[in-house]
Amino acid sequence: SGLSCLHIAATLGHDRVVEILCKNKADINQSIIIDDQPVTAYDLALTQEKTNVCNILVKYGYQITN
């Protein structure tokens, strides 16, 4: 499926797991392809309204783009 641990934790809103993964250098910018579109852990968290996860990803350097 191409999903990383970070993608799964972000989707499910497991903010403590996301924090641990980020501290241990998980690739916060890694994209997977869904419906022919690149999707990051941030995108998945945002879609699921997991704002704590989004904030953690930004704290660790995720760059929000339009």
TrEMBL record:
Q: Which UniProt keywords apply?
A: ANK repeat
- Superkingdom classification of source: Eukaryota
ANK repeat segments run 1-29
The record's annotation in SUPFAM superfamilies points to:
Ankyrin repeat
**What Pfam families does the annotation carry?**
Ank_2 (PF12796)
The protein's name is Uncharacterized protein
